[in-house]
Amino acid sequence: MRRRRWADRETGRERGSASVWTAVAVTALCAVFLGLLAMSQAVLARHRAGGAADLAALAAADHALLGQEAACGFARRVAEAQRAAVVGCLVTGEIAEVAAEAGAGPYTVRVRSRAGPASAAGARADAAPLGGAVGRWS
Q1: Whole-model pTM over 0.70
Q2: Which CATH architecture has domain 21-132?
């Protein structure tokens, strides 16, 4: 009786199916990776805009006594250093409200932040956002 090697055996319809399954698995892993990459870009944009808005609001509130133009100028410089742009700035008394916009990949996110003394912030907790429009940002 002659001994057959593995490569000589008749494999039937299963021949080459490992290549197909490998290609399907690699394609699925690439799709998952692309989804995670897109999600991480959106999270990066959100964090960048949030940090820039917070820091710009603090800068504007710190310079609020110099007037709105000067305070918003400081806010713009701080936001630009964070790779973001100030799209709205309002200084009322010692309270500064700033909206910053940042992007990462195809995503652009806008975040608002308010800063000022703790005693003044509580007095305006029920006040309308920038521009006086409730629930809408312009």
Answers
A1: no
A2: 2-Layer Sandwich (3.30)
